[in-house]
Amino acid sequence: MMGKNVLVVEDEPGTRDYLRMVLEQNGFTVYEAATGEEGLDLAAKAKPLLVLLDLILPGMDGYEVCRKLRGSHPEVAVIMITGCNEREDIIKGLETGADDYVVKPFDSRELLARVKATLRRTLPAAQQNVITFNNIEIFPAARQVKKNGRYIKLSPREYELLLLFAQNPNRVFSRDEILDHLCGQNFFGGRKTVDIYVSRLRARLADESGKPRLIKTVRGTGYIFNFDPE
């Protein structure tokens, strides 16, 4: 489940950094908040699929944050993070609306297993296969693409080119490889055909500054789709 948005609401910087590292190493896009109020603001902006929510927070505690998330974002999965293994606290968290919980200190493998299991339970099957890079979401089952949350129109070959790149991030493709994939080996158009399709796709994916950050030219070879364009 590459590139899923996860919001971490945790006031301890060390724990927050650890969670971000583990999640990013496994393909998640991580947003961070140190208080419940910040977490609720970020949830509205980032639209995460899952929130890792510390129980003990300054000001608004995790129970109240979970209640508010359930009221404003009922589709978001919530895993409560607690520093104690008291049954009453865990039951209260689940009754408040949490989908699961982890107890500090936790193993990274346990955390990832719970995150993935929770997403499998809460995400529709079609959405589990979404490919996400930065502000771009690709829905292979529906052959649809979103940029900044809005659907964009791509021609069939533009879509096939994007899917080829997105399924093989950080791999350099030669113009001949791309041409064969898009048009077949019996196509008699020149390599310039690839440059035209890449140029069109770059324009569709360009960010607000107009820079086509995701697709870069490898001089003398072809093109690469950068997972981390910065």
Structure report:
The protein is α/β, with parallel strands linked by helices and 230 residues long. Helix content is 41%, strand content 22%. The protein has eight helices and twelve strands. It has helices spanning 13-25, 36-46, 62-72, 87-96, 108-122, 156-166, 175-183, 192-205; strands at residues 5-9, 29-33, 50-54, 77-82, 100-103, 131-133, 136-139, 144-147, 150-152, 172-174, 215-218, 222-225. The strands form three sheets. It has a five-stranded parallel sheet with strand order 2-1-3-4-5, sandwiched between helices. Strands 6-7-8-9 form a four-stranded antiparallel sheet, covered by helices on one side. It has a three-stranded antiparallel sheet with strand order 10-12-11. Helix 1 (13-25) links the parallel strand 1 and strand 2 (29-33). Helix 2 packs parallel to helix 3 and helix 6 (156-166) crosses helix 8. The longest helix is centred in the middle third of the chain and has 15 residues, at 108-122.
